[in-house]
Amino acid sequence: MRHAGDMTSAHGSVDEAWGPKTAAAIEAVIERRASNAMARRGWRPTPLVFDSYGRAATDSGPGWVRVLCRVLVMPPTQRRSAEGRSRGWRRYLSVSAPNLPARIRIGQTVHRARTEPGGHLDLRIPVDLPPGRHEIQVSVPGGAEAGRGHVDVIDPTIGRGIVSDIDDTVMVTLLPSPLQAFWNTFVMQEGSRRPVPGMATFLNRESAGFVVYISTGAWNYAPVIRDFLRRHDFPAGACIMTDWGPSTQRWFRSGLEHKRSQLRRLRTEFPELKWFLVGDDGQHDPAIYADFASEFPESVDTIAIRTLTPVEHLVMGGVPLAPDDLAALLPIVAAPGLEHAHPPDGVRRLAGGDGNALIVQTL
């Protein structure tokens, strides 16, 4: 016989399961109605294609590319705003176009799909392309013009790839401070953002031609990141962002889970590569990377951590760690949902206050 406490627990689990699903369904209805309303005002669906990556065909399998795109409904004159050439807050005043047919062209290959909730496309399309940079075009019915982006097709014999965090690893943001986050995101001019000293040189030195930037920031921010990386001579690479708001599993998307899942995806897609993982100690990068290296020691070459200053830690709400004390830095107390893992002895560990200090560590 079930006790009253058991009944409460059961109802709680039902509520937890249905709550995020209901919120996600409501969000989808709002998106669809807003998209239709804006279309009646003359706004048009506009594909924004993000830089991504692919795999060249090898003896172990055919080639493919990963297509990352978001379709927004906007006035035809505001494409420049959506592509990141405006003050921050304008990028977040957008209407997405879910369940819209899309035509994707890569070389001579044409693929058709429909946009997901939020107007997103995240597809792996089979296509054999030589290693190098290739253009992707995405067009939608009623769109003013096709969206264009690039995909870097990788020859897996390069042996190594880089995964880098963005906020406070390559770009000074200090986002966990609410006031600073609001200012940086919605007010600051894009040209005012500062790179972490020496980090572009460090990543260029260590890159073998394949760099993936993973951030917990929203996709609205991706064009800004792309322009920032180009402006400050960082190596080109895919920017894998995330989405805010409810999903069918949770009320708010988990940044920790986003990074963990993308690391595992890259390992599955490129099992031949050893990864050079770059992050900072302001949040959970050391724990995420240590956990991944402990689980897949054969897939990790190096963990490089930028150590924030005590003042930066104070703003971030963290605890300062001694820059020269790798034992204190890696491992650290794991974040909720992460095991307290120790990187294997075979994984090289670097730590320094900026890119220049990390370069010295490599010497």
Automatic annotation (TrEMBL):
Annotated Pfam families: APP1_cat
Molecular function as annotated in GO: phosphatidate phosphatase activity
Domain of life per record: Bacteria
All copies of domain Phosphatidate phosphatase APP1 catalytic, residue ranges: 161-306
InterPro entries tied to this protein: APP1_cat (IPR019236), Mg2+_PAP (IPR052935)
Protein known as: DUF2183 domain-containing protein
The species this protein was found in: Miniimonas arenae
Highest classification ranks of the organism: Bacteria, Bacillati, Actinomycetota, Actinomycetes, Micrococcales
